[in-house]
Amino acid sequence: MSATRRIRLVAIREYRHHAKSKGFWLMMVIVPLVAALAALIPQWVQENKPTRAFAVIDQADGTVLAAIDAALANDEQKRTLAAVKDYAAEHIPAESIPLLSPFAPARGQITGDDVKAFLAFGGLAKVNELLPVLARPGSPPFVPPAPRFARINIPSDIDTAADPAAIGAALSPYLRIEKPIEGERPPWLTAAVIVPADYRLTAPTTAIQYWSIYINDFELESLIESALTAEAKRAMYREQGMSNEAVAAIEARRVAMQAFNPDKREAGGAIELQDRLLNFVPAALAMLLWMSIFTVANLLLLGVIEERSNRLIEVLLSSVSAGEFMAGKLFGIAMIGLTILFAWIVVALLILANGSDPTVQFANSAIQLIFSGPYIPAFAFYFVVGYLTIASIFLGLGSVCNSQQEAQALLTPLVLTLMLPFFLLLPMIQDPNGPIATVIGWIPIYTPFVMMVRLSTNPGWVELVATGLLTLAFSGLVVWGMARLFKSAVLRTGQPPRLVEMWRMMIRQDR
Amino acid sequence: MSQSAVVFRNVSKRYGDFHAVEDLSFEVPAGGIFGFLGPNGAGKTTSLRMMLGMIRPSAGSIEVLGQQSAMDVRPRVGYLPEERGLYRRMTPIETIVYLARLKGMHAADARKRGLDLLEKFGLGAFAKSRIETLSKGMAQKVQILAAIVHAPDLVILDEPFSGLDPVNQQVLEELVESQRAEGRTVIFSTHVMQHAERLCDRLLLVAGGRSVFEGTLEEARARMPRIVRLKTTADPALLAGLPGVARVTPGEAARSYELTLTAAADGEAPLRACFERGIALERFDMSEPPLHDIFVAFVGEGAREADERRSAA
């Protein structure tokens, strides 16, 4: 019987053994599911946040209160308009969209002008009349979003003329959600804005006070702050003698800035939001590479510990050589890794294909990008070298350990070292050809992950080939050393050898 | 090419300064049962691993089924290691088929023969149960069957009886005998002498990594001093004067003595002399020394020598 057949038999057993385990199926489904949930949950939470109540005590001239009310109304209109746009994209046939054109239903950032156009068109009332007529049959009815914030009245037991600090203290049981405000909807106060009596928007001598227990929720605070800043500027322009029209023109002024990328051939190299998002695709591929390799390398480690601790290894090594056995395991588990990877990609595509319009568009562009660039051959190459390096290290270390605990002690420092590129992922994405990414790209054990990230910026063929050859040679060296360690150590019993002994086993074959 | 199943020629195995096996030479004739006996740490498992080609000797040469390495004749060798273990989530039949296929059997043949063996050894109903649901004894049987499923010419069993209850030990003895009946060579290591005594055609006794005896049980006995055990009320000084008696030592029971005979003497001379000299005997026993005694005698001596060598080194 040939060595190839024995390797194949070991590989098939490994594959079948793991493919039948619950962990394998969980791994295939749970990872994309968790990733999808991680992406969707914050969005869902954001969209389904209940309306939060707040109160304003304006001891000054009421300008602040009026500005806050106007900002709230504007915010609500913007959100309604965004919801109408989403609804239109999903449920209204493309040919009917122009009927809503007066308020620009195309997607994109909503400006003040869009809101004005929307209101001029008739606002929510008009839309509520039109949408049921235009929507495809069977579409759900349009439901406008609930307002994010509602300004409610101050509790009647609060002395609004008191010192702001005293008002804050008096509001404390309401702000701590211990006491509802009778007769108000919603009745639970999440924040209170206190405008001191001497406060003037254009010439403040003191600050507006914002009271809340939710110190990390900046939504309302920043909404009010930016609305009041804009209002203060408007007032100051007017004080300078400018007309309302001139102020409006200044406010509407936006500096157009177009970014270009010399690597982009389409559209004269102009960068769109999608291009920026696509920049993360190689990094995502590197993450995928890393996750899939580590997931399966761990299976390899656990497998060899089992075979060693129950001495099954002796029976196996009476039928196959240590080298054949190691090769079979590496190959079988690599197939498991590729199956998991394939499943993740399929599940991810299914999730993306069922997403809303921009997600599908992005997915299509990402797929186009992956297929158009060197990503697939690069991914295959880096998977092979990365897997061989890391999996054989895990296999070698597994061959000296009797239990998972022993393996953990050896692996923890190693895994932390191997994780280094991921602590540096953001600087590398921002500057893929910078000193950090360039230097780390030359360290063979990191090359597969770092060069995957750097691929998007064309690091140059010389560097790609040279780092590729270096990591390939390093991978060969690691597999060779670990095979020798495996041969020497796998039949040993007792405590795991010290690092020095392991080194000796690798360089001096004594089995 | 040798007619022997296994030949060890001056084989040594060293791990650093430790000599696990030292200058070991022996031959295992093809066919029959060969006992590989020795105390714990005598180098039995290391020798068997070298025999299997799992580890290389530091010096000397090994021939297995006419080849320089067992790796070249793997499909013709079956092995049961001392410590047992199987994949917990595989079934007995899957395990047997997998190990048989690694030995070169076709899947269908391996499955058929595996099921036959499981049935024959009372595990037919558990063929498709996970190993983790079987008792330790059952799992051990599965591993023994996996070692012989491919009908190997040479079966190497390392301490095969350990961990088995008396009923299963009997079953295993029958299995080992059946292998011999089918013309195979069985080598098994043990330190339980009763099995070796009943089964082995030839023996190798090792101590401290060295051979202290190789041959048949009869040859071993012939090299042991003969001992007569008797019980008498007579003066022990009279016993020392009996013909052919080299030494008299008190036995465990009261008035009992062990007479160590000279090499040339037979047991009849002292018995005749007792009658002639009026020494009243309550008991006279001259049975063959059991293997246990032979083992203790040879191995004790071998171990002492090994200790001396080590301390001299």
Topology:
The complex is a heterodimer of chains A (511) and B (313).
Chain A: H1 3-19, H2 22-47, E1 52-58, H3 63-91, H4 112-121, H5 123-134, E2 149-151, H6 164-175, E3 189-195, E4 209-211, H7 219-239, H8 244-252, H9 273-278, H10 280-309, H11 312-317, H12 322-353, H13 357-372, H14 375-398, H15 404-418, H16 420-423, H17 425-430, H18 435-441, H19 447-454, H20 461-489, H21 499-507
Parallel strand pairs in A: 1-2, 1-3
Antiparallel strand pairs in A: 3-4
Helix pairs in contact in A: 1-12, 2-12, 3-4, 3-5, 3-7, 10-12, 10-14, 10-19, 14-19, 14-20, 18-19, 20-21
Chain B: E1 4-15, E2 18-29, E3 32-37, H1 44-51, E4 59-64, E5 77-80, H2 92-102, H3 107-120, H4 136-148, E6 154-158, H5 166-181, E7 185-190, H6 193-199, E8 202-207, E9 210-215, H7 217-222, E10 227-232, H8 236-240, E11 245-250, E12 256-261, H9 268-276, E13 281-285, H10 291-312
Number of domains of chain A: 2
The H-level CATH homologous superfamily of the largest domain in chain B, spelled out, is: P-loop containing nucleotide triphosphate hydrolases
The portion of residues forming beta strands of chain B comes to 25-35%
- Indicate the multimeric state: heterodimer
Instruction: Give the amount of beta strand of chain A, in percent.
Output: under 5%
Output the helix-strand order of chain B.
EEEHEEHHHEHEHEEHEHEEHEH
Instruction: Tell me, rounded to a whole number, the average pLDDT of chain B.
Output: 85
Mean pLDDT over the full residue set of chain A: 86
How many domain units of chain B?
Answer: 2
Structural class given helices, strands, pairing of chain A? Answer: mainly alpha
Adjacency order of strands in the biggest sheet of chain A: 2-1-3-4
Can you count the beta strands of chain B? 13
Largest sheet of chain A: 4 strands, mixed
Roughly what percent helix of chain A? 55-70%
Q: Ranges of chain B with pLDDT <50 over ≥5 residues?
A: none
Q: What is the element string of chain A, with H for helices and E for strands? A: HHEHHHEHEEHHHHHHHHHHHHHHH
Spans where pLDDT lies below 50 across 5 or more residues of chain A: none
Largest interface: A-B, 25 and 33 residues
Main beta sheet strand tally, sense and closure of chain B:
6 strands, mixed
Specify Rg of chain A, calculated over alpha carbons: 32 Å
